[in-house]
Each structure stands twice: as structure tokens, then as C-alpha cells.
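Quiz preparation item.
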């Protein structure tokens, strides 16, 4: 008789920081052995299963329920971006997949999860020490949750990206398997390392170049050189600002960057002036000294990504005493899409949830990272905007490059989970054989098909006038 697979949603208990959830007196060897025993209740082969349940929650209702926390005038733009392709739909529907993942097989091992670990939420950025690393760079949905959820969201994104690029399903499946293989091998390696070495581990620009065939390195080396030639604010200043000194103003580029109508703009500035002191209080003392050497010059609304469209996000132009620019991003933080299935955050403030999760998952985080409470109790987190940011040009990837990129993402995700979770138990469960890798290939194909069906449902809802749609100009 086949082993019974856990397929019901997790109990909705308050989530704690993953670092303390797995505390135990058991030895690493004991924990590895326990991980192996979990294959009986959640066979590795079963991780490849996806069949939509008969009473699956309507995905459009999940999307529309999330609209209540967004700026109403921007919701149509969100749907316009999601409608472009099944891949863009997937990027904007983390809440839909969270509901689905809650009914899939689980080992019950929690980590600090990203919550939205698709391939576009990884990229290059500079550490405070000015080293360029590749890592997860969007953690708005972070929360302690089953490690499998992040892996499954990642692998399915490779099949959808392959389809968007005109590649075959075989190419997409191979990329998904490559990412899962990299995750498994890295997790088992982290289980053999001293915990401090895991915290120090990172994928820097040199390691990324080493992953590429020689013929592909020149292009990335040129991009790296351009990205690191100057500070992030210096690079984006000419693109984002018009005028100089006291007359400097963020340049409008609607519908992505714009100053709201006069009344709203005045309200936004008042919100920022009330919010920044709260934000300052969350910084370390040395960062407070640094922030105090800047003054606020201007602010504008910035529409970001796909899933975040409609969430209030502003960019703030700051200027130092010496006249040099700094851009901060102030973004509203709401409950993680995982909370309904993995339990509420231990942090009452969702800005703090994002910040603490980011610090726990990344090897190094933005030194301006902090959180704040605005008027009427609105919650935000703050970070530096585009500090030597390098995004992957996924739309140009062929099959080989997609598979290479998958290996990088798999390694990074394993390091984040190992840092905040239990690499011994997860590594024991995964084992030496590619059983889990191949299961992830099957899951990726099956869930990509589901995303295409859901994208079709969104198109029908738009055609029926159930949702308003606006497309980027």
C-alpha cells in the first residue's frame, strides 16, 4: 500500500523566525536520519504531483480579494501586466499558488521562505562592502513556511519562462531539474559545513562568471563593469531627475513613475515626513548618523513589478550635505500571501517582517534597510533604490543559459534555506539520488499548465468586464 502523503493545509499557528523553530539537541547525524524517515510520509516522488482539486478556490477570486489593499487607480494596470502572457500572470499570482501549495505533499520542515521565489526575483546587487553578489532580491512575501513551497514556485517559473521564449517543454523541464539538482547538492553540502561558513557563503560575480562557458562570459563581464563603474544613485540620477540643486525634481515617466495630483502629492509628502523619523529609529546608530547627512528633496510614486502593482511605493530623492544624490524606496508592506496557509507572522509590523526575513535569508542586505509606520497605521519598509542592481535578461535566454541560470538560483535558494532552516534534515530527505530533481521537473510542467489555464480564466474575466484592465503605454 502506498504511503499516505500529507496534503492538507498547515495549521494556522503564528509563525516564528525559522532560526529558532528547528532548535534541537539532536546531533546533525540524528537530524539527517530523521530527514530520511520523512520519505515514508512524504515520498520524494510524490512531490512531482499536481492535480487541481475538485474544490479548488477560484484563482480570480483570490486575485480580486487582494485588490482591497491596493490603490484602486493602479489595479487595472496590474491586470494589464498579468494578461501579457502566462509567465507574467504567474509572476503576479503568488497568492493563487500559495493556496495551491498548501494542499501539496510536505515534509513539515519549515524554513524562512521567500514566498515568491520565481526566477525574476533573483538578481545581482552590491553589498555594503561594495561586492557584487547574486541572490534573492524580492522578499515582500517572506514568512516561515515549508521549504518545498519555494522550490516548487521556482521550478515552475522556468517552464513558463521557456515557453515565453519559444523554447520547448523539454528545455523548460531540463532547466527545472537543473535548478532542483543544484538545490539538492548545495543543501547537502551546507549540511557538512560549519554554521558560520554557511552564513558567510555567497555567490559573487566571480562565481557567476565561472558558471558560464567562455563564449558567454564577455557579455556578462561588460554588464558587470558598467554596473560597478559608479554608485547606484549616480547611475540612475540622470534618468530619474530633471533640474539641479534646489530645483531638482524626479522626472515623471507615467505610468511607472509619476507625481500624483497636487492634493495626493501633498498628502504623500506629509506621509513621508511623518514616516521617516519612525524609519530612522529602526536603523543601527551608525546608519542613523549616515541618514542624518541627507535631506529630502522630492518624492514620486513608483509602480513596481507585477504582483506589487497597486501597493503604495514611492521613491524619495535625498541629497547629501555635499550635494550628492541618494534614492530611497518606501514601499507599503501588507500581510504575506503565505499567512493564510502557514500561520501569521510573529511580527505585528509587516515592514519589520520583510526586513527581518530579508536579513535572515540574504548573505548581506542593504545598509539602509528599515521599516516605519505612517499615518493611520500604514506599514512600510525602506531600502536604497537600485544600488548597483543587475537584473537577468531572461527574455534573451536560450536553453543553455536558462539551465545555467537555474543552477545559480537553486544554489542561492538552498543557501538561504540552510541559513535559516535545518540543512541536515532537508539534506537527509533529499538524498544522493536525483529522485527529487526529477519530481520537480514533473511538477514544473504540470503547474505551468495550471498557470496557463488560470491565465485563460483572467482573460475571460477581462473580456466579460469583471475586471478593469489598463496596459502600459
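Solution:
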Amino acid at each position: 500500500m502506498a504511503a499516505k502523503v500529507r496534503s492538507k493545509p498547515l495549521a494556522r499557528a503564528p509563525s516564528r523566525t525559522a532560526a529558532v523553530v528547528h532548535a534541537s539537541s539532536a546531533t546533525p547525524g540524528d537530524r539527517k536520519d530523521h530527514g530520511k524517515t520523512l520519505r515514508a510520509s512524504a515520498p520524494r516522488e510524490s512531490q512531482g504531483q499536481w492535480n487541481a482539486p475538485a474544490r479548488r478556490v477560484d484563482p480570480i477570486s483570490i486575485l480580486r480579494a487582494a485588490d482591497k489593499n491596493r490603490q484602486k487607480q493602479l489595479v487595472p494596470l496590474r491586470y494589464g501586466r498579468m494578461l501579457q502572457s502566462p509567465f507574467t500572470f504567474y509572476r503576479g499570482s503568488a497568492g493563487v499558488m500559495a493556496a495551491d501549495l498548501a494542499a501539496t505533499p510536505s515534509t513539515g520542515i519549515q524554513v524562512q521562505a521567500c514566498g515568491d521565489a520565481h526566477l525574476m526575483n533573483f538578481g545581482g546587487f552590491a553589498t555594503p562592502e561594495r561586492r557584487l553578489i547574486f541572490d534573492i532580491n524580492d522578499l515582500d512575501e517572506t514568512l516561515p513556511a515549508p521549504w518545498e513551497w519555494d522550490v516548487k514556485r521556482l521550478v515552475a517559473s522556468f517552464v513558463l519562462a521557456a515557453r515565453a521564449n519559444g523554447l520547448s517543454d523539454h528545455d523548460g523541464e531540463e532547466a527545472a531539474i537543473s535548478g532542483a539538482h543544484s538545490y539538492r547538492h548545495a543543501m547537502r553540502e551546507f549540511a557538512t559545513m560549519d554554521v558560520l561558513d554557511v552564513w558567510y557563503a555567497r555567490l559573487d560575480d566571480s562565481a557567476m562568471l565561472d558558471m558560464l562557458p567562455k563564449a558567454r562570459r564577455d557579455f556578462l563581464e561588460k554588464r558587470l563593469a558598467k554596473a560597478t563603474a559608479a554608485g547606484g544613485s549616480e547611475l540612475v540620477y540622470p534618468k530619474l531627475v530633471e533640474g539641479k540643486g534646489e530645483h531638482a525634481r524626479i522626472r515623471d515617466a507615467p505610468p511607472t513613475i509619476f507625481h500624483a495630483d497636487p492634493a495626493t502629492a501633498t498628502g504623500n509628502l506629509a506621509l513621508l515626513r511623518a514616516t521617516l523619523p519612525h524609519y530612522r529609529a529602526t536603523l543601527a546608530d551608525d546608519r542613523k548618523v549616515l541618514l542624518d547627512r541627507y535631506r529630502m528633496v522630492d518624492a514620486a510614486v513608483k509602480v513596481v513589478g507585477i504582483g506589487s502593482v497597486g501597493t503604495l511605493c514611492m521613491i524619495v530623492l535625498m541629497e547629501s550635505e555635499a550635494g550628492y544624490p541618494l534614492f530611497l524606496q518606501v514601499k507599503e508592506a501588507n500581510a504575506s500571501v503565505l499567512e493564510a496557509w502557514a500561520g501569521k507572522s510573529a511580527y505585528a509590523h509587516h515592514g519589520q517582517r520583510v526586513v527581518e526575513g530579508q536579513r535572515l535569508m540574504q548573505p548581506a542586505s542593504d545598509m539602509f534597510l528599515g521599516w516605519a509606520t505612517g499615518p493611520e497605521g500604514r506599514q512600510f519598509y525602506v531600502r536604497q533604490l537600485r544600488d548597483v542592481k543587475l537584473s537577468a535578461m531572461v527574455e534573451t535566454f536560450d536553453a543553455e543559459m536558462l539551465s545555467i541560470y537555474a543552477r545559480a538560483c537553486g544554489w542561492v535558494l538552498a543557501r538561504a534555506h540552510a541559513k535559516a532552516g535545518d540543512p541536515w534534515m532537508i539534506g537527509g530527505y533529499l538524498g544522493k539520488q536525483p529522485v527529487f530533481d526529477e519530481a520537480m521537473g514533473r511538477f514544473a510542467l504540470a503547474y505551468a499548465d495550471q498557470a496557463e489555464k488560470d491565465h485563460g480564466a483572467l482573460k475571460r474575466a477581462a473580456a466579460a468586464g469583471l475586471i478593469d484592465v489598463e496596459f502600459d503605454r
